[in-house]
Fold D-3-phosphoglycerate dehydrogenase.
Amino acid sequence: MPKTSLDKSKIKFLLLEGVHQNSVDALHAAGYTNVELLPGALEGEELLRKIADVHFIGVRSRTQLTAQVLEHAHKLVAIGCFCIGTNQVDLKVAREKGIAVFNAPYSNTRSVAELVLAQAILLLRGIPEKNAAAHRGGWLKSATNAYEARGKTLGIVGYGAIGSQLSVLAEGLGMHVQFHDVVAKLPLGNAHQAASLHELLATSDIVSLHVPDLPSTKWMIKAAEIAQLKPGAIFINASRGTVVEIEPLAQAIRDKKLLGAAVDVFPTEPKSNKDEFVSPLRGLDNVILTPHIGGSTMEAQANIGVEVAAKLIRYSDNGTSTSSVNFPEVALPEHPGKHRVLHVHRNQPGVLSQINRILSDNDVNISAQYLQTNEAIGYVVIDLDAKSSDLALHKLAEVPGTLRCRVLF
Ligand SMILES: NC(=O)C1=CN([C@@H]2O[C@H](COP(=O)(O)OP(=O)(O)OC[C@H]3O[C@@H](n4cnc5c(N)ncnc54)[C@H](O)[C@@H]3O)[C@@H](O)[C@H]2O)C=CC1
Ligand SMILES: O=C(O)C(=O)COP(=O)(O)O
């Protein structure tokens, strides 16, 4: 059973995919000097070897922390997703192992919304094609198939943080907005909820996807859905590459059924800037292909770096798990003069009573206790006298059902 009680300088952080330097600075400032920052994603043997040795890992959307990878994460206390999506992490397995997962749910939403709006305007004017032709010496001066955004209907699939922000920006341009969501959402401005996905697809001039990667959104746009789009429509996907089947989309572009498309996310993405990008959409001039940079702005990355580093530091320093995406949320006060035992266990009957029995049998004076559970795990935090913490750590780590146990000084 993994248990930790470490000096800060021995707590290892591995940050991947070039997360912002300010996260390293924040960790250093908080006393965590053992931080490795790598520019790309990791996979295969290298990831397994590295993850086995660290207490905290930071990733973006590319590194896959699957059940198999997490099997090797013997020391891991928490995962920071320096992005919105957490689909790259097996959240359930992480939870069952007592590993808390944090993300930055809002820091890059504006960047995505701005990019999508810009792409919609460029595609309405046929700019990608005209630009590509001009680079080859061509001159496509023509108004044919070039339109203003004003008065066009934008269909947003997934009216969450990004979709609703896009809605407001698009209305500012004079567009009509409709959306489809599985949850009833308050329409902003003059936007309205479409009767169904089918109706949205069939009646929008531009369709933009903003759903998370879920089993229910996997390949939600296939040949049948693409066939429902209006002739001459524009299709944009900056959500996840698993939401849209690429081949039927490429075919609709080749058949000139669609005016254009913008795609930022792909079923398989290169793991770093050194690897080749392969896609059936390559070579189609009226498709804007971007390398998953919807959230890649200086502002967003700086905000994400600060936000996620702060969540990891708080969880490490103090045990607060607020805003974790897979963990019982506990907001904890400081614990001056006391030691704090953090105990993560399976949510099964009897664990808490055993913990309290052990503490009482050993005359441990509890100055505060906090408990939060979800359907899978329980998270109990106990503040006690410094002299008792070593004993408590070792005894509580042996309680059946214990997943992780550590002590904070
Ligand atoms: N291209 C990029 O760089 C970025 C991509 N993203 C992607 O965008 C996604 C959305 O981000 P947010 O708006 O912040 O998430 P969000 O969670 O605020 O909104 C997602 C919305 O989709 C809805 N939804 C879920 N399943 C649906 C379905 N089957 N049909 C229709 N609606 C459904 C939800 O009810 C929710 O309202 C992220 O999960 C991430 O995958 C996020 C940031 C950057
Ligand atoms: O925030 C998200 O979910 C994104 O897709 C952005 O991913 P990235 O950090 O650019 O790999």
Summary: The two ends are 21 Å apart (CA to CA).
